[in-house]
Amino acid sequence: MRRCLELARGGLCGASPNPMVGAVIVCDGRIIGEGYHIHCGGPHAEVNAVRSVRDKSLLSRSTVYVSLEPCAHYGRTPPCADMLCRLGVKRVVAGCIDPFARVRGRGIQKLRDAGIDVTVGVLEEECRELNRRFMTCQSLHRPYVTLKWAESSDGYIGLRGERAVISTPLTSLNSHRLRALSDAILVGGATALNDDPSLTTRLWPGPSPLRIVIDNRASLPATLRLFSDGGPTLAVTPRPYADERKGVETMVTDFSGDILTPLLSALYERGIQKLLVEGGAETHRRFIASGLWDEVWREVGRAPLGGGVVAPRMPAGTVWTERRMLGGLFLTARNKRPAD
Hints:
The protein is of the alpha/beta class. It contains eleven helices and 16 strands. The protein has helices at residues 2-8, 45-51, 80-87, 106-113, 124-130, 132-140, 172-180, 189-195, 225-228, 260-269, 281-290, and strands spanning 22-27, 30-36, 63-66, 91-94, 117-120, 144-151, 156-158, 184-188, 210-214, 233-237, 248-252, 274-279, 295-300, 309-310, 321-325, 328-334. It has a nine-stranded mixed sheet, sandwiched between helices. Strands 2-1-3-4-5 form a five-stranded mixed sheet. Helix 4 (106-113) links the parallel strand 4 and strand 5. The longest helix has 10 residues, at 260-269. The protein is elongated, with a radius of gyration of 23 Å.
């Protein structure tokens, strides 16, 4: 199963919105086939593993290890559970159950109904952790939310009304890595106005996420990069813009109450599984206060600012993990819930 997890990570940038899955086929104590889900729309891990087996006659007495329950529905590809039943494999060992509504135990049941010996829950925690974004999205019906900011050594994320550069050219790579792993990226109106960011993935391989801006007055100028560079942007506003903005979609919402819950629900319906929130202070405060966050990446710069916008405050009891990478210091945390 550990080998399945190693293989599954090969789909980190290509498998989404499908989960990362690895499969290993063993016969008489020897690995005879391996595979992983390379990209969405392509063959699943079990199919690639079966295709790699030279002597297919061995499959009937083999054990198939797979990090996630074999699918049981027709999507872009046929059900893997049906394929394993048809091949008559002897045994299947699955790391964890797939929480997707169209699977969720049905793959396991198909295998057992076909007389295949099935074991579930081997390295279950590690298998769920690998696909924590997918698992959260399927279980909570909202995107997996990652909060990200850079703060000075004395705890400020910026100067009042102007941009402060805290990240270095090297540590900026992590921001673009997180963007490449996200389906959408969100900022508040103040950040959009003060920093005029493009929010695209430029320093790391991978696609640019959908850009989202919360404009609570529908007053951001059309000259900002988010509205003028031709890329798609979703603006959350209390009313439509007075002018026409090419490539800009507006989501009109009521700002007198909670805007995050309906926004995350709408993003889930659009197929957005992973949301990266890059600021600013008020936007981060909204997510933290509502508990609608799953992971935090906090970069701590080497120099002080001496004042300005105070960095977000996390709830008491937040457990931080220190990571030194790309020449910088990053602190990460997870929102641990009882269901986790």
